[in-house]
Amino acid sequence: MIEFATLLERLAFTPSRNMKLTLLREYFSMAPDPDRGYALAAMAGSLSFSAAKPAMLRALAMERTDPELFAWSYDYVGDLAETVALIWKPERKEHDTPVAPGLADVVHTLERLPKADVPNVVRKWLDACDTSSRYALLKLITGSLRVGASARLAKTALAEMASVAPDDVEEVWHGLEAPYKELFAWVEGKGPKPDAKDAPVFRPPMLAQPLENVDLTAFDPAEWRAEWKWDGIRVQLVSTPQGERVYTRTAEDIGKAFPDILAILQDLGSHVVLDGELLVVQEGVVAPFADLQKRLNRKSPTASMLRDMPAGIRLYDILFEDGEDLRSLPFDIRRQRLESWYARLKPPRMVLSELISFRNFEDLATLRENARSEGIEGLMLKKADSPYVPGRPRGPWWKWKREPLTVDAVVMYAQRGHGKRSSFYSDYTFGLWRTVEEKRELVPIGKAYSGFTDEELKFLDKWVRDHTTKRFGPVREVAQGLVLEIAFDAAQYSKRHKSGVALRFPRVARIRRDKPAQEADDLETFIRAFL
Amino acid sequence: MDWLELKPEGLFCAPGAFYIDPLQPVGHAVITHGHSDHARPGHQHVTATPETLAIMRLRMGEDQAGQTQQALPYGEVISVGNVKIWLAPAGHVLGSAQIVMEYRGERAVVSGDYKRAPDPTCVPFEVVPCDLFVTEATFGLPVFRLPDPAHEIAKLLHDVRLFPERTHVVGCYALGKCQRLIALLRESGYHAPLWLHGALLPMCSLYESFGIPLGELRSATAAKKGEMRGGIVLAPPSAIADRWARRLPEPVVCLASGWMHVRQRAKARGVELPVVISDHADWDALLETCQATGAKEIWVTHGREDALIHALSRKQIRGRALRLIGYEDDEEAAEQEAAGQDASV
């Protein structure tokens, strides 16, 4: 437990991805089976307890302190598990050196323990643990473990240990269960790669490179296929005799949020792996990304969400059919297989991604610029003979995004960044003008923390420090004097923001030192232009 | 006890006509230790340990550290008016002292700031039995049961080994914490040169002149960036995450403070590696010390007095909150300074 607690503590405070990976690798190579397997499960969110309720923790703490002291302490610390972990004064009998429980002990014990016995066991554990282990233990058993590392990061650390790509770990992951002994054996070179067999596992997807610095005139249009690039969530639908899954392209299983899609897959009963775009489609029209976001944010959707924001799939590709691996076949052949599968099964709420016919790339460029409809981000170019290769190979697939939209906004607040940027004011809240009761004022419409060079960051940081008017903790309010050209992919109405609008993927395109703040854009003009 | 009273200038001993750690310039000040909230400039006559007087002269200049200075080593008894006084070690920083006063058969002890944990850079706290004990309560909440400093140093050194390509920059207060950290690192067998922010070096020299060896110290401000890679840099808390730290190769931001015991405090400061080391008594030490003095009455100068007074009352000890404004906790003051200012030194 001590090693796990130390890892959690360090991960929670470390912003750097590389350092987190080092910490994870160190832990996984040092901790024994099955402890490390349960730690991995805890990080991946596939371990959950609710044996201990907050009221039980409070009652335990009260046995060792009085209500006033506890209340003052809880007030100060602000987190129940942390308060109990810190305030707990272990009672140890003389000559008694209790051993803190291992992670696996905790998991196995709680699986079998009758509810009435939980307080007694937890009390014994608390007495045997040090402060940080108590914290980890309490967070774990109350089911509120927040780890400063994603499941993906933990799998990346394992992949590094095995010198394979993270996707290779993903490919076996969903066929395995805690405590993942065969996974660790493989990673450490002591066992074979676990065999997924018919389990509905994730297959690493093929991704496209952005079309930049590429000479299109050198391409033969006859060798290329074009499709719309949709602004949804890229997903992989997996259906095998052992079950159905909806995976994101980072291998996250989001099936619970989309029972409508799972139900369709189950009805079809086809043994298949499909690649497509998840969208909210209302009466044949693709809804804004914000609606999809609402579905994503819910662990399980309400009946009214399922009715008003039904999910649909735009099919791009087929990877497996009836257990046959199609990934090495050329794109055109896979497309034929996809079309005939589609024609045969007529899956509801799925449509084929349209193949756009074009004579030359100038035609395509015009199409791309004119396509401003909801949900289209640009074009995809796929080589007709390209096999389905996991990862992001350069050459076979290109994404050709629309030019971003831009707006001139005024910097209003700045905040320090994290990690390497912790000494820089690198997060900027920007706003547009509006007139309220004949007074012109700025209203914030978004926040950007990328898009600038190191030199530009130095300039922005200095500008913020020299023009600070107020401080609110880590946030500085600045004089209304600097205009930023903000690039963004789309604008949406939003009830969450004071201005009523929200930007998708805003970033700093240029610093407009030449432009007086008064001449930045108005909210009204912005709404007319983009919404 | 009616011969110690609270005045706007601070705690006043009427029969001796002197103040203890006064907040404003006075005629006669008896000073517990050299931190700037306790040792303030501009008094006429100052009584303190020789170490504290040296610290005051270094920090505020000869002319501000009292027009006349009376060096009083630990344990040496003098009479001021009708009051007998002497100084007892407080274990807080070099030269820190409790003020022991006797008058008409009663004994009062003003502890200043103190700790009970071992510290290789100062004389350990000495329990002086008394009728009235005046205590601090910086960590006056039962959540502050602070870990063994050796454990925290081991944590820091483990991280230094794990990330040899990074530079660990540890925020620490210039007087006391800095030298204690260095001494603890040396005790743990870390003998590589340590890199110090310019603001920390003079106090280290002073400690060494009092016979406390700190090993090889180098100026971080004058160093080439690459030289410090993989090393440990010490700097005032205000500098660790600000422009000064940009001279360091890939810094890992650490902060040595008792406050780091609570996650939210560490998070709010953007600290990557909290080092929970404090120069103040933790909760258990506060309670234990108050009881050990045998005092029937406890006064609490500053800190979280509510919880401490409540806990004392359960042990039939009467507590009184003085609520002295102006005794910022040094660590907290340093935090506020860091949050509010840009130290570009």
From TrEMBL, chain A:
GO molecular function, one term: DNA ligase (ATP) activity
Domain ATP-dependent DNA ligase family profile: 304-434
Biological processes annotated in GO: cell division; DNA recombination; DNA repair; DNA replication
Matches recorded under CDD domains: Adenylation_DNA_ligase_Bac1, OBF_DNA_ligase_Arch_LigB
The organism's place on the tree of life at top rank: Bacteria
Keyword DNA damage listed: yes
Keywords: ATP-binding, Cell cycle, Cell division, DNA damage, DNA recombination, DNA repair, DNA replication, Ligase, Magnesium, Metal-binding, Nucleotide-binding
Enzyme nomenclature, EC number: 6.5.1.1
SUPFAM superfamilies: DNA ligase/mRNA capping enzyme, catalytic domain (SSF56091), Nucleic acid-binding proteins (SSF50249)
Gene3D superfamilies: DNA ligase, ATP-dependent, N-terminal domain, DNA ligase/mRNA capping enzyme, Nucleic acid-binding proteins
UniProt entry tagged with the keyword S-adenosyl-L-methionine: no
Protein name (database record): DNA ligase (ATP)
Organism: Gluconobacter albidus
From TrEMBL, chain B:
Record field: transmembrane: none
Organism encoding this protein: Gluconobacter albidus
Gene3D superfamilies the record matches: Ribonuclease Z/Hydroxyacylglutathione hydrolase-like
Keyword flag Mitochondrion: no
Keywords: Ligase
Claim: Ligase is one of the keywords in the record: yes
GO molecular function: ligase activity
This protein's name: DNA ligase-associated DEXH box helicase
